[in-house]
Amino acid sequence: MEGDNKWKILFFGGTGYIGKFMVRASVSLGHPTFVYARPLSTHGISPANAKLRDEFRGIGVTVLEGELEEHEKMVSAMREVDVVISTLPYPLVPAQLKIIQAIKAAGNIKRFLPSEFGCEEDRITALPPFQAFLDKKKCIRRAIEAAGIPYTYVSANCYGAYFINILLRPYEHKETVIVYGTGDAKSVFNYEEDIARYTIRVSCDPRACNRIAIYRLPKNVISQNELISLWEMKTGRSLKRVHVSEEELVELSQTLPDPENIPVSIIHSILVKGDLMRYDLKEDDFEVSTMYLNMDYTSIDQLLDIFLTGNPPPPTIAAFA
Predict the structure, then answer these.
(1) Which candidate in 7, 72, 261, 320 could, as Cys together with 129 as Cys, close a disulfide (CB 3.0–4.6 Å)?
(2) Helical (H) or strand (E) element with 134
(3) How far does the signal peptide extend, from start to end residue (predicted)?
(4) Residues tagged active-site
(5) pLDDT at residue number 1
């Protein structure tokens, strides 16, 4: 059975795009919640980041300020908690080796969730710029296993609102839409708030220990063509489709400078090849829609309604450098 204990959860990257959803979900599910973040005095901390920290404190989050280089400070923070969740952005993925060292030194962490939340990197092969991205995450997995740290790896697939903002650009009200490849490859678009709630559940669930949690939510498996048609039906508009071929994406992945070649390689993988749905689930995979049958989630249909009538997450672009 799923554990009922309210474990103490420490976040690295808790003020980032997906991190803030995770922190709020942790609090809403009743877990004592901690965020380890760079000091506000550090160059580059935005006013929005400072405001978010104030919000966190207002809902009961303990915000600890420190750098990833401060080993003893991280070890001290970890000795106060049970679970560590990293939502650090791609440029800081290798820095998780410092988190692993601190977890090993602390000796009390019941579960570590590294910064993944996208593709299942051990089961797909992508164009070189994206493959290099995946290989860095695979190195973190192997380091966790070598250290003997209890883990859960999360393959949450696509952030639904993030990709709707990129693919449909609803805030621009344009009459054209880009279709990558044929537009028929299936992908999985999960709402960020649901990704967060499922992640908090699996982080404290004994059944998910040392397993891969996959968020292949049935109502959110959809092709780009189907997504566009659904949006047209809801808005009453007819969009002109402009196709970008697979060959064009491959060429861009070879000619664009680093890191601009990474996003086109990701698009090739998930929207042209359909890598998120090209592998079968294994018997030991922890697929959340089958493990938490009593948990409702936002369908892609409902998520589009949020874009029409609600308060969707604003557009943003992931950092690759």
Answers:
(1) 261
(2) helix 128-147
(3) none
(4) 137
(5) 36
